[in-house]
Amino acid sequence: MRVAVIGVQGDVEEHVIVTKKALKNLKVDGEVVATRKAGVVARSDAVIIPGGESTTISKLIFSNSIAEKILQLAYENKPVMGTCAGLILLSKHGDEQVAKTNTKLLGLMDIWVKRNAFGRQRESFQVRLNVKGIGDYDAVFIRAPAIVKAEKNVDVLATFENYIVAARQGKILALAFHPELTNDTRVHEYFLKLAFD
Amino acid sequence: MKLEELRFGTELIKRGFAKMQKGGVIMDVTNAEQAVIAEEAGAVAVMALHKVPADIRTAGGVARMADPKKIEEIIDAVTIPVMAKCRIGHVMEAKALETLGVDMIDESEVLTPADVFFHIDKRKFIVPFVCGARSLGEAVRRIWEGAAMIRTKGEAGTGNVVEAVKHMRLINYAIAKLGKLPDEKIYNVAEKYAERYLQLAKLVNESMSLDFDKNEPVFEEYTFDEIVDGLYRILLEIKEMQRLPVVNFAAGGIATPADAAFMMKLGADGVFVGSGIFKSSNPPEYAKAIVEAVQHYDEPEVIAEVSKGLGDAMKGLDVSKLSEEERLQTRGV
Q1: How confident is the model at residue B276 (pLDDT cuts 50, 70, 90)?
Q2: In chain A, what residues touch B10 (CB-CB under 8 Å)?
Q3: Are B79 and A56 in contact (CB < 8 Å)?
Q4: B23–A124: do the CB atoms touch at under 8 Å?
């Protein structure tokens, strides 16, 4: 299988490394590519939108046809994962910050997001979370967004302080934290397995 | 959820913040209006300043932390991270910036240094720091002190990329060199790099005709041996990874889209543009073009396209004509 990590901006390399490890653990043959080419995204079996600045990533994926290709893969029922900025882009409903910055969203999940929900960088934190289907997980939140509301068709995987911080809708997976920053490959393994469901 | 399980300001969180900036452009801004232009152009963060480096150069005198009121205005104007500069070694300016809610502090040679002996012990802060470096030695010392991001010093406010290129090349060459060195030789490198921390102790001991006591702390609570050991561990990590263990940006003299792309080509993880944008004739277009250029640094046709009809870049200075005192890069080694 081929996994594409959207490589326009953010912690792309970190996702590539963890995804490679996860493939190995699952004993699945595959390649992981960081890409800025819409054509490469179109020819992938799974896509990851990394952490970074949602305003910047949004501009860059909508200025060429990367956004279009991600949507196409999602409609073909292929797995798509977004972490932090990626979560914001996957959502259908933005907050006032999203509106103010005219940030375009992919709208693949029926969720309402709040950018910088926990505050600025000094409020960024690490915490042990219980993630449904994965278990106890050391989650790193960096100027993280959160899901404030979700439609019934969204499966809530983890919550923290009354916010939803991990959720799944079909094969679309959104996380407010950064599983790519730790050595724990379980979130990526969970994501890759969606391709075989 | 038990509160004691919550952790703030860990190395993972600080370095993680810097990683989120990768592939991005961080722009110097001096007011809310410029900050909004930067955000709209696709900047990943802004650096809040009182004056851009080119104007700091012209103004002369002591350059200090920006007015907190100005920084707050900029924080309120944008949704992207806001960084601000403190003077080298100035712990209280840094503490004040942390209180304001600045997302990253640049302990910067662009401002007048406040401490001739030491940089800030950045591990003692919740907020992450970025520091300038001209060489691997400077970079390793700053990382050991807790910097979560390194940037080349270049020569700020000149619009001349030559020094940034030089510093990137010096660091890259030194990293490649480390890859071929046996560990015991690397220990000698660590000892050499650590000598810088002995300056204060040596000066005082000499003035009192005393011998240097190996067990005395030389910087904060650390003895010389502890510092050598700390630097040695970082050097081994660099040898193994063949890159710095933190994000490494280019800064100091980047004025055009092609300059920014060139620095990316040399291995920078992203770019700081100081005076280059708001000293150009068309800041919004310049800002957008530099973001595009960093994005597509390996596609020359894009660089050519975004550079078309941009208007005048900032005027620029010949670095070789600067006197020793005019060179900002020699501050804080």
Answers
A1: confident
A2: 126
A3: no
A4: no
- Please, which residues have CB within 8 angstroms of residue B190's CB and are 6 or more apart in sequence? B228, B229, B231, B232, B235
Pick the CATH number of A2-196 from 3.40.50.620, 3.40.50.880, 3.40.50.1970, 1.10.260.40: 3.40.50.880
Which CA distances in Å does B222 have to A179, B209, B219?
Answer: 34, 23, 5
Distance between B28 CA and the closest CA of chain A, angstroms:
17
Summarize pLDDT for A104-150 with one digit per residue, the tens: 999 999 999 999 999 999 999 999 999 999 999 999 999 999 999 99
Q: How far apart are CA B72 and CA B272, in angstroms?
A: 21
* Predicted ipTM of the assembly: 0.97
What is the rounded CA–CA span in Å between residue A66 and residue A39? Answer: 8
What's the gap between Cα A190 and its chain centre?
A: 13
* C-alpha to C-alpha distances, A25 to A30, A197, B111, nearest whole angstrom: 12, 18, 50
**Does any CB of chain B come closer than 8 Å to the CB of residue A184?**
no
What is d(CA A39, CA A64) in angstroms, rounded to the nearest whole number? 11
Establish if A136 touches chain B: CB-CB under 8 angstroms.
no
Nearest CB among B10, B19, B81 relative to A11 is that of B19
Residue A15 designated active-site: no
Element (H, E) at A2: strand A2-6
- In this structure, which amino acid lies at residue B169? R
Under 8 Å between Cβ of A179 and A138: no
Residues sharing a CB contact under 8 Å with residue A171, sequence separation 6 or more, in sequence order: A74, A77, A78, A79, A80, A194, A195, A197
Q: Find the catalytic residue in B14, B19, B85, B202.
A: B85
Q: Delimit the domains of chain A by residue range.
A: 2-196
- Name the helix (H) or strand (E) containing A139: strand A135-141
> What pLDDT sits at residue B4?
52
Q: Can you give the pLDDT at residue B2?
A: 52
Residue B99: list chain A partners with CB under 8 A: none
CB pair distance less than 8 Å for B79 and A120: no
CB contacts < 8 A (A, B): 116
Beta bridge partner(s), residue B261: none
| A93 carries an active-site annotation | no
Record: contact A97-B98, CB cut-off 8 A: no
Catalytic residue among A14, A178, A188, A189: A178
Q: Residue B295: which of A8, A121, A123 has the nearest Cβ?
A: A8
* Cα distances (Å, whole numbers) of residue B39 to B75, B253, B279: 12, 21, 17
